[in-house]
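In the laboratory, one determines a bound structure by crystallizing the protein with its ligand and collecting diffraction data. In a computational setting the workflow is compressed into a single prediction: the sequence and the ligand go in, and a structural description comes out. We illustrate the idea with copper (II) ion.
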Amino acid sequence: MKKLNQNRMAVLKNGGLRMLIGELVLSLGLVVFLGAFVAPSMAASGGSVTGDISVKKAYVPTDGPKGEKAVVVSLIPVNKTDFPAVTEHAQMNQKDLNFVPHVLAIQKGTTVDFMNQDAVNHNVSCPDGCCSFDLGQWGKGVVKSHLFEGEGVATLLCSLHPEMLAYIVVVNTPYFTTASLITDNAAKKQYCSYSIKGVPAGQYKLKVWNAKVTAADQVITVADGTATTADIELHKK
Ligand SMILES: [Cu+2]
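The predicted complex, in structure-token form:
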């Protein structure tokens, strides 16, 4: 009888252990199964790149519609030059004899719509080698479009109004932002900050564009789920 009980205990112990192992395997399976769905979205979130921008030994006029406060920061992947096609159009309008916005950053392959919102005719043309074009003249409420296939900085002019000027900065990357310089006259400082989120892990060349000042390229490494800091010092061109 005693032996039988001992045997039963052993069976119960073994059975209990088997059940425990079974549950563990099931739980692990569930974790792996769910992980298969969660992991790609976590990986896709990438990292971010942020930094302070400051102007050194130079002054950038930042006031008014033609103020050069825009600083375009772009991250060019070191080992990648092909990106999904851009389907969304960007807008650069003509309003009160100005281009609005004064600086527009776009990914290469973006179509820009130019709407004339003034009562007078406007022209939009670009003399620069990367992206030269002339869209002719058109009146109020009319939109003309242009596809930017070249990389570089397109100076926009209007042949009817010599005072009109704007820039379209065409970058071969989906990872870019436009920061806006603040002028602190009392402290004699010009500065701002920038942030680019959702950047896939990898190595990038950080490039900076402003109409009046420039900065050296930097090579940075982005890791998933981390914020990489890259401060930028702008100086005379
Ligand atoms: Cu015009």
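Residues 28-43 have pLDDT under 50 and may be disordered. Keep in mind that any predicted model is a hypothesis to be tested, not a measurement.
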